Amino acid sequence: MSDVMERSKTIELRVLRYRPVSDAEPVFETFQVPYSDDMSVLQALQSIKDSQDGTLSFRWSCRMAVCGSCGMMINGDPKLACETFLRDLAPNPVVIEPLRNFPIERDLVVTVGDFVKKIESIYPYIMPKAPRSVEEGAWLQTPAQMAAYESFADCINCMLCYAACPQFGANPHFIGPGAMALLQRYNSDSRYRTAHTAGPGVGRGRGVVVHGGRRLFRCVSETGRSGQRGQSEQDQQRGRLLLAPAAPEGRAMSERRPYLRAQDPYWWARKPYLGYTLRELTGVAVALYGAILLAGLICLCRGKDSFDAYRRILSGDVSLLVHLLLLVAVVWHVVTWFQTMPKTMPKLIVGGRQVPQQRMTVIGVALAALCSAALLAAVVMVGRWS
Q1: What is the pLDDT of residue 294?
Q2: In a domain, 239, yes or no
Q3: 215 and 176 Cβ atoms separated by less than 8 Å
Q4: DSSP state, 99?
Q5: Helices (H) and strands (E) in the chain, counts
Q6: Number of neighbouring beta carbons within 10 Å of residue 212
Q7: How many CA atoms lie within 13 A of 198 on its CB side?
């Protein structure tokens, strides 16, 4: 009986549909899907395709969060449908859309040609520092050398980071976070060449990325890159898979019209970017407070009268309010910086064990607080002596 009750649960899925032959723009379609606690969003979409609408199109492959094919926007966040479970989203409706920053090919399928081209611009294997014979054996690394690039090697180079990157959405010529992570993976490898001459510039490791520009300097020719084989066959297969069941009179069955969504100019004010935007703005507070300290140093160099005027300005009510706001912003900046630091730096190995990220954050904040207290004590002591 309990098993029957579990299977009788239903959840509402709002899926963005776009059929290029018949639709001028995407529209949402609602489905009621029976589900159990072990059912993923990908399984729910497969259930819709099997029993409700066989024309629903989406990508999937491994179902093990390895290939990245089933990436899509789930309730506004880029996620893999195979590892996102309905039990974590119920009982509220689930909104499913194609990944942002990509043209919509059909329904939840996006055009991936530009993404693949950017990933393929990074040569896909180690180019060693020097030739090494079989007799010399394997090129060994220490745990510390491996830790320098391991976090970048863990990236599966899927499109989720591109869907979450507003810079890629605003500038499609930007090579994107996935290719940059792959680039850093090779640059950080101790077995890799330290430098290459690439066209007019010299780049460390794989090449030089010009952020926001059109060019990616690299030492590998276009014909030497991976993925150049069989592209026409893949395009033909994709074209056949995306054919609509019927076409209006006067329109070809094989017509492809990818739908390009406009970039939201207020993306920075919406979730999940608002917190990130405010955090980045705290850098302005740090710069402003640095300018205030620099002004005090200049006044001190100019003499007692100039420095006394500076101190009178700082003692005003407006100045005290400004300093209070700056203090809050700077503390937030420091805490969030130490929260981000362990996620971006190589893994820290002590005594053969990796230091947990949370512990690194606590240590960093504690050291910052200790240094600040020591500096404050020094300033108070100097003030008393003077």
Answers
A1: 93
A2: no
A3: no
A4: P
A5: 12, 13
A6: 11
A7: 21
